Amino acid sequence: MTGTHHFSIVQGATFARTITWKTRDSITDPERTVTDAVTNGTTTVTSATANFLTTDVQREVTGTNIPAGAYIVSRTNATTIVISVAATSSGTGGTLTLTSTRRVDVTGYSAAMQVRKTTADADTLASITQASGITLGGQAGTAALSISAATTGAITPGRHTYDLKLTSGSSVVTYLLSGVFEVEAKVTS
Q: What is the pTM of this model?
């Protein structure tokens, strides 16, 4: 298992969450910072000293004029990268930190999530796939999960269990999340 998370929802409400699959490795991807970053209010960032590598793609970045959650989408050359969201303004001599956190590209993956009363229970209380309730975000590493109000309305209030399985195009299975899926009874009618 990659991680655990507790989901809580009111019975009969639509369940909608977006999760991001990230990895962190400060040994093979040590954080590095430059102080000559140039932003121009677009997704292009340059630095004469960064020596950007193709392996920097998917790394999250922070710094002057860089919005929270930005990551490297592509490397143009050793001095230029394209990030996932436009810089908030133009500037020169700014800081740019390539963090050791990397988004996992889920392009070519399939996904499935099931909710059961217990892990040993054969009956499925809710089941979603890419065909019905899961949207994978490709290079962004996201999975948007949605379970209809009708489905959650049919689940008895209580603590249940779930897991989210992603399968790569080469059939490598990762159980990305698992944990408690709690359904609370409605109070207001």
A: 0.83
